[in-house]
């Protein structure tokens, strides 16, 4: 993690702070330039690349596909069709790759700029949590942990169905929502 700037966020980071298991995959974030290194680490540790629709069957080949697209048009988004992108603003994400080991899944989200830019652009504050190679950060600890409340960020009413589904996930987990 230290060499690549890899961050863990999403439900796993929320679970770490709330001590409540929500299930789901492990969401990891790094700048695109480190994605090949991180992906190969997953492969070397028993995970298999699980290409989504529109991706190459080989991880190296798909990284090269995305790299070529970025060189042709900076800030291109190469996210598979079925990827759950409800928590992201797309302007910083270069690609999303899935790695599986049995029933466990890791998502590698490669960003154009700092991964923090993407995490700070999430739909609500309760998911703005990260861990790094040596620390864990809950950006809104009183709101998230003590009040079990999430503030919607940069969403306008009426919410779209996709936005509402993302928010509902945290309502179902017991969070109050403030807009």
Question: What features would you describe in this structure?
Answer:
This protein is an alpha/beta fold. It folds into two domains: 7-119, no CATH class; 140-178, no CATH class. It contains six helices and nine strands. α2 packs antiparallel against α3 (59-72).
Q: What Rg is obtained from the alpha carbons, in whole angstroms?
A: 16 Å
Number of helices: 6
Question: What is the oligomeric state here?
Answer: single chain
C-alpha termini separation:
34 Å
Task: Trace the largest sheet across and list its strands.
Answer: 1-2-5-4-3
Q: Which class of secondary structure composition applies to the elements? A: alpha/beta
Compute the average pLDDT.
89
Spans where pLDDT lies below 50 across 5 or more residues = 80-89
Helix content: 25-40%
Largest sheet: 5 strands, mixed
Shape: globular
**What string gives the helices and strands in order?**
EHEHEHEEHEEHEHE
Number of domains: 2
Number of strands: 9
β-strand amount: 15-25%
């Amino acid at each position: 993690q230290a060499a690549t700037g890899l961050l863990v966020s999403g439900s796993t980071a929320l679970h770490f702070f709330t001590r409540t298991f929500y299930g789901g995959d492990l969401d990891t974030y790094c700048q695109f330039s480190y994605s090949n290194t991180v992906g190969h680490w997953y492969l070397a540790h028993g995970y298999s690349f699980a290409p989504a629709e529109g991706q190459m069957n080989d991880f190296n080949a798909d990284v090269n596909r995305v790299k070529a697209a970025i060189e042709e048009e900076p800030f291109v988004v190469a996210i598979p069709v079925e990827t759950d992108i409800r928590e992201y603003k797309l302007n910083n994400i270069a690609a999303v790759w899935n790695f599986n080991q049995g029933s466990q899944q890791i998502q590698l989200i490669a960003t154009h700029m700092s991964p923090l830019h993407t995490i700070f652009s999430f739909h609500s504050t309760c998911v703005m949590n990260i861990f790094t190679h040596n620390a864990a950060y809950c950006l809104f600890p009183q709101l998230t942990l003590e009040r079990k409340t999430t503030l919607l960020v940069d969403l306008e009413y009426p919410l779209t169905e996709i936005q509402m589904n993302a928010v509902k996930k945290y309502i179902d987990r017991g969070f109050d929502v403030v807009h």
